[in-house]
Write a structure and sequence with these properties.
heterodimer, A: alpha/beta, seven-stranded parallel sheet, 7 helices, 14 strands, 28% helix, 27% strand, globular, B: alpha/beta, five-stranded parallel sheet, binds flavin-adenine dinucleotide, binds adenosine monophosphate
Chain lengths: 279, 336
């Protein structure tokens, strides 16, 4: 099994988000970076499948040179190859991102072996565009299903089964012939922590780089929709970010009911008042 | 005049989904500002009955593809049916719910048409300011699951939008709702679009009140200390006929299953009361519980960020406070 996982570097926001003065980005001066928990599970799943089945695992990101850190994190837990589609750090819209990723996959597959399975996160933690994986799948002509929390291979290894939560509770299962693409969610597995030797090994590994530069605003080859392509047009990029802001907060300071176990009586008075226990 | 606004409607048990009705409400506001007709798309068995109910929410016409082929969820096929309706109607916009399925179907529509798509929109103002549908539309959408808002521009012949859950109120027509015109259509079914399709459904097995439906949720974080520590939270939840949830820290540590996680990459809940025990109140957790009517925080740290979103607080150790509350509930119940 050859598996590719696509991950996106995002700021590790904590208690609250602080924006830059121009309102164009999150102020990351005091923040670390990470990838979405969904994608962490994708990385872990790729490592587990290759451990069991053999084959190779690759991680890919489109982002600034600093995103090497996220690629090395993935290699520290066992991913073998890493590809950086290096940008100038400007924000790429999901249409352009998908186009560049699809193009990279095609050239990697031409140079190496085809990917049997490609894993995306269900949505990126920051922009939450809910579309990059689907756009790549359509460009490559492969089936995709999102929201996946369990993956297992068919006995003949010709297909993958994937399970996700059904709208009213319960589970629904899909069966996709390989090669296939899955959008995965946290809960798929419990990602391992990198070991020290793992980190040291990852540090020495080669990262394959492709320079992309700034976000394109116009014509794209791959990733363009087939309807549009048939009409001689290419995909329209967007949406275009104008600015960011924090949602208005209505809350004021909490009313302190007490300290320690002695507060129990005041708490149950409150429960009675708001009607969650009978008086 | 602009083309219609089309709303994609999910349904179950003969009823349109709540989130789809929220999307229809946003679509209706949009249709009014464009002076455009409001139309809907409904797929699968029972579609016609669901279509009939949409007049109450302002739909003037409903495109109905009632073939049973559309019963099992297949995002590419549902997207292809939507594209077929788009081809005949040249809509100004297509709007779906920001549900798991709504986002996925619209992503397929977007990928196959080459159109951009804005997910989890909370409001939209069409046109370039001159009142028409042309030019770049302005919209507000959620990032970080709603921790952050983005002002964005969207410029395309047809705008594809999904609507953030619980951001727009369902909006029934005040009076004199007309029965919508039913427009049956037969989209082609490309076998390739049916590859990713539900092949098996399993019903929910666990009994008891589910985390998403519970009126009271007792949430635990790192401050609970261990998997065993959650026993105390279980007892309190039982006394309140509620359910137990947790932060990402406790699911990552394996103290609780991931299905208990509340937040950006877990569940969004809206109980009457959320009791946050030993939870610091990281923004990614808060987006999952801020719809609670009341929040009570139990925390050793009076300055933790949870205090800024909680309505009430008790300062101290969860390990002693939680059992004291349970005991007090039981004492009052036992009292004559
Ligand atoms: C992209 C992304 C997505 C995420 N998604 C989610 C998500 O879906 N859900 C989620 O929860 N998190 C999510 N997180 C993680 C989030 O940022 C926080 O790390 C997490 O919520 C913290 O969990 P916690 O409050 O249990 O732990 P901590 O932040 O460690 O807080 C522990 C709290 O317990 C208190 N405490 C300690 N001991 C006691 C005691 N004995 N009695 C009472 N109080 C005590 C402390 O004062 C502290 O406030 C996400 C993060 C990222 C980057
Ligand atoms: N810049 C990027 N580099 C690599 N993968 C990405 C990038 N942006 C998005 N993805 C992948 O696409 C998924 C969906 O992203 P989105 O459509 O932006 O919500 C993410 O979870 C990632 O797996």
């Amino acid at each position: 099994m050859n598996i590719l996982v696509c991950v996106k570097r995002v700021p590790q926001t904590g208690g609250r988000i602080v924006l830059t003065a121009d309102g164009q980005a999150i102020d990351t001066r005091f923040l670390g970076h990470t990838i979405s928990p969904h994608e962490e599970c994708g990385v872990e799943e790729a490592v587990q499948i290759v451990e069991k089945e053999g084959g190779s695992s690759t991680v890919l990101t489109l982002g600034p040179v600093e995103a090497e850190e996220q690629l090395r994190d993935a290699m520290a837990i066992g991913i073998e190859r890493a590809v950086l589609l290096e940008t100038d750090g400007s924000e790429w819209d999901p249409v352009s991102t998908a186009g560049a990723i699809a193009e990279s996959i095609e050239s990697q597959e031409a140079a190496n072996a085809a990917f049997d399975l490609i894993l995306f996160g269900n949505e990126a933690a920051d922009t939450g565009d809910f579309q990059v994986g689907v756009r790549v799948a359509v460009a490559l002509g492969r089936p995709i299903i999102n929201g996946i929390k369990e993956i297992w291979l068919r006995d003949d290894r010709g297909a993958v089964f994937a399970r996700r939560e059904a709208p009213g509770g319960g589970w629904e299962t899909y069966e996709l012939p390989l090669p296939a693409i899955l959008g995965v969610k946290e809960g798929l597995n419990l990602p391992r922590y990198p070991s020290v030797p793992g980190r040291l090994r990852a540090k020495k590994k080669e990262i394959e780089r492709v320079a992309l530069g700034g976000s394109p605003s116009g014509a794209l080859g791959l990733g363009a929709g087939e309807d549009a392509a048939a009409a001689g047009a290419s995909a329209v990029p967007g949406p275009t970010k104008l600015g960011l802001r924090l949602p208005a907060e209505e809350k004021t300071a909490a009313e302190v009911l007490g300290q320690g176990p002695d507060a129990a009586s005041a708490v149950v008075d409150l429960f009675e008042k708001i009607g969650v226990v009978a008086r | 005049m602009s083309g219609p606004v089309l709303a994609f409607i999910e349904h179950a048990g003969g009823e349109p989904d709540r989130l789809s009705l929220e999307a229809l409400a946003l679509a209706r506001g949009l249709a009014v500002s464009l002076a455009a007709p409001l139309e809907a798309i409904v797929l699968g068995s029972g579609a016609e009955a669901v279509a009939g109910r949409l007049g109450t929410f302002g739909a003037q016409a409903v495109h109905v593809a009632g073939a049973a082929d559309f019963d099992a969820f297949a995002p590419a096929a549902w997207g292809a049916a939507t594209r077929a309706a788009m081809e005949s109607r040249q809509p100004a916009a297509v709007v779906a719910a920001g549900s798991e399925r709504g986002n996925e179907v619209m992503a397929h529509v977007a990928a196959r048409t080459g159109l951009p798509m804005a997910a989890n929109v909370v409001s939209v103002s069409p046109g370039d300011g001159s009142g028409g549908a042309a030019g770049s539309w302005r919209l507000v959408r959620q990032r970080w699951a709603g921790s952050l808002l983005e002002d964005a521009a969207l410029d395309a012949p047809t705008r594809l939008l999904t609507v953030a859950p619980h951001a727009v109120a369902i909006d029934p027509v005040a009076s004199g709702a007309a029965t919508p015109t039913i427009l049956p259509f037969e989209p082609e079914r490309d076998p390739a679009d049916l590859i990713a399709r539900v092949v098996k459904v399993e019903a929910r097995t666990s009994s008891g009140v589910s985390l998403s439906d519970a009126k009271v949720v007792v949430g635990g974080g790192r401050g609970v200390g261990s998997a065993e520590g959650f026993g105390r939270l279980e007892e309190l939840a039982t006394a309140l006929n509620g359910a137990v949830g947790g932060s990402r820290v406790v699911t990552s540590l394996g103290w609780r299953p991931h299905s208990d996680q509340i937040g950006q990459t877990g569940l969004r809940i809206a109980p009457d009361l959320y009791i946050a025990c030993g939870i610091s109140g990281a923004i990614q957790h808060i987006v999952g519980c801020k719809a609670a009517k009341q929040i009570l925080a139990i925390n050793t740290d009076p300055d933790s960020p949870i205090m800024a979103v909680a309505d009430y607080a008790v300062i101290g150790d969860v390990a002693t406070i939680v059992p004291a509350i349970t005991a007090e509930i039981e004492r009052r119940r036992g009292a004559p």
